[in-house]
């Protein structure tokens, strides 16, 4: 499996395309610029199967309706953030200057943890709350990568000052669910560059003591 990182929107939120050998793909966190994303997918001749959200903050959801309508594909989000797509207060967009963002509800809800199969793709869902109540990380064991959303960044961690954020809970999520993965596991974060579990264990100032 291959993957591509595509920063989108004013906050340069990382959208990820996870691509199998048949050119089928999962779209993770299409945050903005739907037309740009669709054009890229068409240029690459990819076949999207679904949109999966690590969480439903405004900067991760802005292109959902454009993309799912174009490809007629479903959206997956954690059940704790089921209402966030339609509520600017919950998704945080009303607190920023770009105006309220509302999407239609998701078709499917992630409940708890465990293996999930979406089209040709199978992966483990880990609940990693703290940045938001329904934040999840998507672990692709065979590919050696985890899509961590805004839980863990290169040299940093997610903010916890938006509704539902909890710093202590986030640190626990990172420690219990992410740092236990093999150190060579690539971490695909919601913003910024790619890192590894081992690099963050060794150098992340927010994780000292683990």
Automatic annotation (TrEMBL):
UniProtKB keywords: Hydrolase, Metal-binding, Plasmid, Zinc
Entry superkingdom: Bacteria
Alphabetized InterPro entries for the sequence: MBL_Glyoxalase_II, Metallo-B-lactamas, RibonucZ/Hydroxyglut_hydro
Metallo-beta-lactamase domain: residues covered: 12-191
Cross-referenced Gene3D superfamilies: Ribonuclease Z/Hydroxyacylglutathione hydrolase-like
Cofactor(s) in the UniProt record: Zn(2+)
This protein's name: MBL fold metallo-hydrolase
Source species of the chain: Robertmurraya mangrovi
